[in-house]
Amino acid sequence: MSKLKISLGAALVTIALVLAWVFIPTHVRLSSEILNQPVGEGFKLIGHKAISTKPEDGKLNHFFLIDESSSVKDATPFLITSDPFIKVNQTDENKLSITINGRVKQLDNDLWVERADGTVQHWFISAQINYVR
Protein backbone atom coordinates (compact mmCIF):
# COMPACT_ATOMS: atom_id res chain seq x y z
CA MET A 1 0.00 0.00 0.00
CA SER A 2 2.87 2.34 0.78
CA LYS A 3 4.43 1.85 -2.66
CA LEU A 4 1.07 2.62 -4.28
CA LYS A 5 0.80 5.92 -2.36
CA ILE A 6 4.35 6.89 -3.32
CA SER A 7 3.68 6.05 -6.99
CA LEU A 8 0.45 8.07 -7.05
CA GLY A 9 2.14 10.98 -5.28
CA ALA A 10 5.03 10.96 -7.76
CA ALA A 11 2.58 10.82 -10.68
CA LEU A 12 0.62 13.80 -9.30
CA VAL A 13 3.80 15.83 -8.78
CA THR A 14 4.94 15.01 -12.33
CA ILE A 15 1.58 16.04 -13.79
CA ALA A 16 1.60 19.27 -11.76
CA LEU A 17 5.11 20.14 -12.98
CA VAL A 18 4.19 19.49 -16.63
CA LEU A 19 1.04 21.62 -16.33
CA ALA A 20 3.00 24.44 -14.68
CA TRP A 21 5.63 24.31 -17.43
CA VAL A 22 2.94 24.49 -20.13
CA PHE A 23 0.67 27.15 -18.63
CA ILE A 24 2.96 29.54 -16.74
CA PRO A 25 3.45 32.60 -18.97
CA THR A 26 6.86 33.83 -20.05
CA HIS A 27 8.21 37.03 -18.58
CA VAL A 28 11.11 39.40 -19.10
CA ARG A 29 13.38 40.93 -16.47
CA LEU A 30 15.61 43.92 -17.14
CA SER A 31 19.29 43.44 -16.43
CA SER A 32 22.19 45.89 -16.63
CA GLU A 33 21.87 49.32 -18.23
CA ILE A 34 23.63 49.59 -21.59
CA LEU A 35 22.59 53.10 -22.70
CA ASN A 36 21.68 56.32 -20.90
CA GLN A 37 21.69 59.19 -23.39
CA PRO A 38 19.93 62.54 -22.99
CA VAL A 39 17.80 63.51 -26.00
CA GLY A 40 15.93 66.75 -26.28
CA GLU A 41 15.05 68.92 -23.34
CA GLY A 42 14.19 66.82 -20.32
CA PHE A 43 14.13 63.42 -22.03
CA LYS A 44 16.54 60.51 -22.11
CA LEU A 45 16.97 57.26 -24.00
CA ILE A 46 17.60 54.28 -21.72
CA GLY A 47 18.69 50.81 -22.84
CA HIS A 48 18.72 47.62 -20.77
CA LYS A 49 19.72 44.04 -21.42
CA ALA A 50 16.69 41.77 -21.08
CA ILE A 51 16.50 38.30 -19.60
CA SER A 52 13.55 36.30 -20.92
CA THR A 53 12.14 32.97 -19.82
CA LYS A 54 11.41 32.26 -23.49
CA PRO A 55 14.56 30.57 -24.88
CA GLU A 56 13.87 31.34 -28.55
CA ASP A 57 14.05 35.10 -27.84
CA GLY A 58 17.81 34.89 -27.39
CA LYS A 59 19.75 37.93 -26.22
CA LEU A 60 17.56 41.00 -26.58
CA ASN A 61 17.84 44.60 -25.44
CA HIS A 62 14.97 46.91 -24.49
CA PHE A 63 15.14 50.64 -25.20
CA PHE A 64 12.91 53.25 -23.57
CA LEU A 65 12.31 56.96 -24.23
CA ILE A 66 11.32 58.53 -20.90
CA ASP A 67 11.25 61.80 -19.00
CA GLU A 68 14.49 62.55 -17.10
CA SER A 69 12.70 62.28 -13.75
CA SER A 70 11.01 58.94 -14.59
CA SER A 71 12.21 55.36 -14.37
CA VAL A 72 11.78 52.43 -16.73
CA LYS A 73 9.81 50.37 -14.18
CA ASP A 74 6.42 51.45 -15.55
CA ALA A 75 7.54 52.30 -19.09
CA THR A 76 6.98 50.24 -22.22
CA PRO A 77 9.98 49.72 -24.51
CA PHE A 78 9.64 51.31 -27.94
CA LEU A 79 12.45 49.16 -29.36
CA ILE A 80 13.38 45.53 -28.70
CA THR A 81 16.45 44.44 -30.64
CA SER A 82 19.48 42.19 -30.52
CA ASP A 83 21.81 45.17 -31.16
CA PRO A 84 23.15 46.68 -27.91
CA PHE A 85 25.03 49.42 -29.80
CA ILE A 86 22.31 51.46 -31.50
CA LYS A 87 23.31 54.88 -32.81
CA VAL A 88 20.94 57.74 -31.98
CA ASN A 89 20.84 61.22 -33.54
CA GLN A 90 18.32 63.94 -32.80
CA THR A 91 17.33 65.26 -36.24
CA ASP A 92 14.75 67.84 -35.16
CA GLU A 93 12.71 68.76 -32.10
CA ASN A 94 10.98 65.57 -30.88
CA LYS A 95 12.44 63.54 -33.76
CA LEU A 96 15.09 60.83 -33.50
CA SER A 97 17.00 58.88 -36.11
CA ILE A 98 18.23 55.45 -35.02
CA THR A 99 20.64 53.07 -36.76
CA ILE A 100 20.27 49.42 -35.75
CA ASN A 101 22.66 46.63 -36.82
CA GLY A 102 20.78 43.58 -35.65
CA ARG A 103 17.48 41.76 -35.41
CA VAL A 104 14.48 43.91 -34.49
CA LYS A 105 11.69 42.19 -32.61
CA GLN A 106 9.58 45.29 -31.94
CA LEU A 107 9.72 48.94 -33.02
CA ASP A 108 7.19 51.65 -32.20
CA ASN A 109 8.10 54.79 -34.14
CA ASP A 110 5.24 57.01 -32.95
CA LEU A 111 5.53 57.68 -29.20
CA TRP A 112 3.64 59.70 -26.64
CA VAL A 113 5.99 60.26 -23.69
CA GLU A 114 4.50 61.39 -20.39
CA ARG A 115 6.26 64.11 -18.41
CA ALA A 116 6.42 64.32 -14.62
CA ASP A 117 3.79 67.10 -14.60
CA GLY A 118 1.27 64.89 -16.43
CA THR A 119 1.63 66.41 -19.90
CA VAL A 120 2.66 64.31 -22.88
CA GLN A 121 4.96 65.00 -25.82
CA HIS A 122 4.78 63.41 -29.24
CA TRP A 123 8.02 61.85 -30.55
CA PHE A 124 8.71 60.49 -34.02
CA ILE A 125 11.44 57.90 -34.60
CA SER A 126 12.94 56.92 -37.93
CA ALA A 127 15.08 53.80 -38.11
CA GLN A 128 17.69 52.44 -40.47
CA ILE A 129 17.93 48.70 -39.88
CA ASN A 130 20.91 46.70 -41.20
CA TYR A 131 20.46 43.05 -40.35
CA VAL A 132 22.99 40.68 -41.89
CA ARG A 133 23.17 37.09 -40.70
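Above is the first protein from milestone M3; the second protein from the same milestone is given next.
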Amino acid sequence: MPVLRADGLVKAYKGRSVVNGVSVEVHPGEIVGLLGPNGAGKTTSFYMLVGLVRPDSGRVLLDDKDITHLPMYQRAHQGIGYLAQETSVFRKLTVAENIMLILEMQPGLTAADRKERLEDLLTRLGLGPRRNSQALHLSGGEKRRVEIARVLATRPKFILLDEPFTGVDPIAIEDLQSIVADLREDGIGILITDHHVDATLKITDRVYIVFEGEIKTSGSPEELVKNPIARKYYLGDGGGSRGQNSSQLRPPRDEDDGEEQFREAS
Protein backbone atom coordinates (compact mmCIF):
# COMPACT_ATOMS: atom_id res chain seq x y z
CA MET A 1 0.00 0.00 0.00
CA PRO A 2 1.57 3.35 -1.04
CA VAL A 3 2.40 5.91 1.64
CA LEU A 4 3.43 9.55 1.12
CA ARG A 5 6.00 10.49 3.72
CA ALA A 6 8.16 13.45 4.64
CA ASP A 7 11.19 12.45 6.68
CA GLY A 8 13.05 15.16 8.59
CA LEU A 9 12.52 18.02 6.13
CA VAL A 10 14.68 21.09 6.79
CA LYS A 11 14.61 24.46 5.02
CA ALA A 12 16.21 27.81 5.82
CA TYR A 13 16.17 31.13 3.98
CA LYS A 14 18.97 33.67 4.49
CA GLY A 15 20.09 31.86 7.61
CA ARG A 16 16.59 31.78 9.12
CA SER A 17 15.17 28.33 9.83
CA VAL A 18 11.65 27.98 8.39
CA VAL A 19 11.21 24.21 8.61
CA ASN A 20 13.26 22.17 11.06
CA GLY A 21 12.89 18.40 10.90
CA VAL A 22 9.25 18.06 9.80
CA SER A 23 8.12 14.44 9.42
CA VAL A 24 4.58 13.56 8.35
CA GLU A 25 2.94 10.66 6.57
CA VAL A 26 -0.31 10.15 4.71
CA HIS A 27 -1.92 6.79 4.00
CA PRO A 28 -4.44 5.95 1.27
CA GLY A 29 -8.02 6.77 2.18
CA GLU A 30 -7.28 9.17 5.03
CA ILE A 31 -7.40 12.93 5.42
CA VAL A 32 -4.52 14.46 7.36
CA GLY A 33 -4.29 18.07 8.51
CA LEU A 34 -1.13 20.15 8.83
CA LEU A 35 -2.11 23.05 11.06
CA GLY A 36 -0.36 25.79 12.98
CA PRO A 37 -0.20 29.54 13.55
CA ASN A 38 1.10 32.14 11.14
CA GLY A 39 4.73 31.56 10.20
CA ALA A 40 4.77 27.97 11.45
CA GLY A 41 6.24 26.58 8.21
CA LYS A 42 3.15 24.88 6.83
CA THR A 43 3.35 26.35 3.34
CA THR A 44 7.07 25.67 2.98
CA SER A 45 6.50 22.06 4.08
CA PHE A 46 3.79 21.76 1.43
CA TYR A 47 6.09 23.19 -1.23
CA MET A 48 8.78 20.64 -0.37
CA LEU A 49 6.34 17.74 -0.50
CA VAL A 50 4.95 18.73 -3.88
CA GLY A 51 8.31 19.63 -5.41
CA LEU A 52 8.14 23.42 -5.61
CA VAL A 53 10.98 23.83 -3.09
CA ARG A 54 13.97 21.54 -2.57
CA PRO A 55 14.75 20.81 1.09
CA ASP A 56 18.17 21.56 2.55
CA SER A 57 18.02 18.11 4.11
CA GLY A 58 15.50 15.36 4.72
CA ARG A 59 13.60 13.20 2.25
CA VAL A 60 10.23 12.89 0.54
CA LEU A 61 9.20 9.28 -0.03
CA LEU A 62 6.39 7.74 -2.04
CA ASP A 63 5.88 4.07 -1.28
CA ASP A 64 9.43 4.02 0.19
CA LYS A 65 10.87 5.41 -3.06
CA ASP A 66 12.94 8.56 -2.59
CA ILE A 67 11.41 11.30 -4.76
CA THR A 68 13.12 14.23 -3.02
CA HIS A 69 14.92 15.39 -6.15
CA LEU A 70 12.10 14.81 -8.62
CA PRO A 71 10.53 17.96 -10.11
CA MET A 72 6.87 18.66 -9.57
CA TYR A 73 5.69 17.27 -12.91
CA GLN A 74 7.39 13.93 -12.32
CA ARG A 75 5.80 13.67 -8.88
CA ALA A 76 2.46 14.33 -10.55
CA HIS A 77 3.12 11.45 -12.96
CA GLN A 78 3.71 9.22 -9.95
CA GLY A 79 0.39 10.13 -8.37
CA ILE A 80 0.81 13.30 -6.31
CA GLY A 81 -1.84 15.90 -7.08
CA TYR A 82 -1.68 19.49 -5.82
CA LEU A 83 -4.34 22.15 -5.38
CA ALA A 84 -2.66 25.52 -4.90
CA GLN A 85 -4.12 28.29 -2.79
CA GLU A 86 -4.16 30.62 -5.79
CA THR A 87 -6.87 30.06 -8.40
CA SER A 88 -5.50 28.00 -11.29
CA VAL A 89 -8.45 27.75 -13.68
CA PHE A 90 -8.20 29.28 -17.15
CA ARG A 91 -10.63 32.17 -16.90
CA LYS A 92 -11.61 32.36 -20.58
CA LEU A 93 -12.16 28.63 -20.99
CA THR A 94 -15.42 26.95 -20.08
CA VAL A 95 -15.73 24.53 -17.19
CA ALA A 96 -15.72 21.56 -19.57
CA GLU A 97 -12.73 22.92 -21.50
CA ASN A 98 -10.76 23.42 -18.29
CA ILE A 99 -11.22 19.78 -17.35
CA MET A 100 -10.79 18.40 -20.86
CA LEU A 101 -7.46 20.22 -21.17
CA ILE A 102 -6.10 18.01 -18.39
CA LEU A 103 -7.73 14.85 -19.74
CA GLU A 104 -6.09 15.40 -23.13
CA MET A 105 -2.69 15.27 -21.42
CA GLN A 106 -3.35 11.86 -19.85
CA PRO A 107 -1.69 8.99 -21.72
CA GLY A 108 -3.63 5.99 -22.96
CA LEU A 109 -7.06 7.62 -23.15
CA THR A 110 -9.13 7.47 -26.32
CA ALA A 111 -11.48 10.29 -27.30
CA ALA A 112 -14.37 8.20 -25.98
CA ASP A 113 -12.51 7.61 -22.71
CA ARG A 114 -11.92 11.34 -22.27
CA LYS A 115 -15.55 12.18 -22.96
CA GLU A 116 -16.78 9.56 -20.49
CA ARG A 117 -14.33 10.73 -17.83
CA LEU A 118 -15.37 14.35 -18.39
CA GLU A 119 -19.03 13.51 -17.85
CA ASP A 120 -18.18 11.56 -14.71
CA LEU A 121 -16.23 14.47 -13.25
CA LEU A 122 -18.87 17.06 -14.14
CA THR A 123 -21.51 14.95 -12.43
CA ARG A 124 -19.42 14.12 -9.39
CA LEU A 125 -18.45 17.72 -8.74
CA GLY A 126 -21.93 19.07 -9.44
CA LEU A 127 -20.69 21.10 -12.39
CA GLY A 128 -23.02 19.80 -15.08
CA PRO A 129 -25.22 22.92 -15.18
CA ARG A 130 -22.10 25.10 -15.51
CA ARG A 131 -20.26 23.03 -18.10
CA ASN A 132 -20.49 25.72 -20.80
CA SER A 133 -19.85 28.69 -18.50
CA GLN A 134 -16.56 30.53 -18.75
CA ALA A 135 -14.51 30.19 -15.57
CA LEU A 136 -14.42 33.96 -15.12
CA HIS A 137 -18.15 33.84 -14.34
CA LEU A 138 -17.85 31.20 -11.60
CA SER A 139 -18.07 31.77 -7.87
CA GLY A 140 -15.12 30.99 -5.61
CA GLY A 141 -16.65 27.66 -4.61
CA GLU A 142 -17.35 26.69 -8.23
CA LYS A 143 -13.77 27.50 -9.24
CA ARG A 144 -12.51 25.27 -6.43
CA ARG A 145 -14.72 22.43 -7.68
CA VAL A 146 -13.30 22.83 -11.19
CA GLU A 147 -9.79 22.73 -9.76
CA ILE A 148 -10.58 19.56 -7.81
CA ALA A 149 -12.02 18.02 -10.97
CA ARG A 150 -8.81 18.88 -12.83
CA VAL A 151 -6.72 17.21 -10.12
CA LEU A 152 -8.96 14.12 -10.15
CA ALA A 153 -8.59 13.94 -13.94
CA THR A 154 -4.98 12.83 -13.35
CA ARG A 155 -6.16 9.91 -11.15
CA PRO A 156 -3.87 10.79 -8.23
CA LYS A 157 -2.98 8.53 -5.32
CA PHE A 158 -2.50 11.53 -3.03
CA ILE A 159 -3.71 15.13 -3.14
CA LEU A 160 -2.21 18.08 -1.28
CA LEU A 161 -4.78 20.81 -0.63
CA ASP A 162 -3.28 24.21 0.21
CA GLU A 163 -5.94 26.51 1.70
CA PRO A 164 -8.84 25.02 -0.31
CA PHE A 165 -11.45 27.02 1.64
CA THR A 166 -9.82 30.41 1.03
CA GLY A 167 -12.05 32.85 -0.87
CA VAL A 168 -15.07 30.57 -0.53
CA ASP A 169 -18.38 31.43 1.15
CA PRO A 170 -19.59 29.34 4.14
CA ILE A 171 -22.21 27.39 2.17
CA ALA A 172 -19.68 26.50 -0.52
CA ILE A 173 -17.22 25.43 2.19
CA GLU A 174 -19.73 22.81 3.32
CA ASP A 175 -19.98 21.53 -0.25
CA LEU A 176 -16.20 21.32 -0.52
CA GLN A 177 -15.97 19.51 2.82
CA SER A 178 -18.34 16.86 1.51
CA ILE A 179 -16.41 16.51 -1.76
CA VAL A 180 -13.05 16.15 0.00
CA ALA A 181 -14.45 13.70 2.57
CA ASP A 182 -15.85 11.53 -0.24
CA LEU A 183 -12.35 11.12 -1.70
CA ARG A 184 -11.67 8.64 1.10
CA GLU A 185 -13.96 6.20 -0.71
CA ASP A 186 -11.61 6.32 -3.71
CA GLY A 187 -8.66 5.42 -1.51
CA ILE A 188 -7.02 8.81 -2.12
CA GLY A 189 -4.82 10.14 0.66
CA ILE A 190 -5.29 13.85 1.44
CA LEU A 191 -2.96 16.31 3.16
CA ILE A 192 -4.70 19.61 3.88
CA THR A 193 -3.75 22.90 5.45
CA ASP A 194 -6.20 25.77 5.88
CA HIS A 195 -6.82 28.74 8.15
CA HIS A 196 -10.48 27.71 8.39
CA VAL A 197 -9.57 25.30 11.16
CA ASP A 198 -13.07 24.33 12.28
CA ALA A 199 -13.93 23.36 8.70
CA THR A 200 -10.68 21.41 8.39
CA LEU A 201 -11.09 19.51 11.66
CA LYS A 202 -14.54 18.30 10.65
CA ILE A 203 -13.09 16.20 7.82
CA THR A 204 -9.64 15.17 9.08
CA ASP A 205 -8.75 11.79 10.55
CA ARG A 206 -5.43 12.95 11.96
CA VAL A 207 -3.78 16.34 12.45
CA TYR A 208 -0.19 17.46 12.88
CA ILE A 209 0.41 20.68 14.82
CA VAL A 210 3.44 22.60 13.55
CA PHE A 211 5.00 25.53 15.42
CA GLU A 212 8.14 27.45 14.46
CA GLY A 213 9.00 24.86 11.84
CA GLU A 214 8.66 21.79 14.06
CA ILE A 215 5.94 19.19 14.58
CA LYS A 216 4.93 19.54 18.22
CA THR A 217 2.20 16.91 18.43
CA SER A 218 -0.32 14.97 16.40
CA GLY A 219 -3.55 13.07 16.88
CA SER A 220 -7.22 12.97 16.02
CA PRO A 221 -9.17 16.25 16.15
CA GLU A 222 -10.90 15.04 19.32
CA GLU A 223 -7.56 14.29 20.98
CA LEU A 224 -5.98 17.61 20.03
CA VAL A 225 -8.75 19.71 21.56
CA LYS A 226 -7.75 18.21 24.93
CA ASN A 227 -4.02 17.97 24.23
CA PRO A 228 -1.94 20.29 26.48
CA ILE A 229 0.86 20.49 23.90
CA ALA A 230 -1.57 21.58 21.20
CA ARG A 231 -2.98 24.14 23.64
CA LYS A 232 0.47 25.45 24.45
CA TYR A 233 1.68 25.84 20.90
CA TYR A 234 -1.50 26.56 19.02
CA LEU A 235 -4.52 27.36 21.15
CA GLY A 236 -2.94 30.31 22.91
CA ASP A 237 -2.31 28.94 26.40
CA GLY A 238 1.45 29.33 26.12
CA GLY A 239 4.09 31.33 24.28
CA GLY A 240 2.04 31.42 21.10
CA SER A 241 -0.87 33.21 22.76
CA ARG A 242 -2.94 35.40 20.46
CA GLY A 243 -5.90 35.86 22.77
CA GLN A 244 -7.81 32.93 21.29
CA ASN A 245 -10.62 30.95 22.87
CA SER A 246 -8.94 27.86 24.32
CA SER A 247 -11.99 25.71 23.59
CA GLN A 248 -11.59 26.02 19.83
CA LEU A 249 -8.78 25.68 17.33
CA ARG A 250 -8.75 29.10 15.71
CA PRO A 251 -5.43 30.28 14.22
CA PRO A 252 -4.67 33.84 13.13
CA ARG A 253 -5.93 34.57 9.64
CA ASP A 254 -2.65 35.96 8.30
CA GLU A 255 -0.76 34.17 5.57
CA ASP A 256 1.98 31.70 6.39
CA ASP A 257 5.21 33.65 5.96
CA GLY A 258 6.69 30.60 4.25
CA GLU A 259 5.04 31.89 1.08
CA GLU A 260 6.82 35.21 1.44
CA GLN A 261 10.15 33.47 2.01
CA PHE A 262 9.51 31.31 -1.07
CA ARG A 263 8.79 34.35 -3.21
CA GLU A 264 11.98 36.02 -2.00
CA ALA A 265 14.02 32.90 -2.72
CA SER A 266 12.60 32.56 -6.20
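Note on the second protein: Residues 238-266 have pLDDT under 50 and may be disordered.
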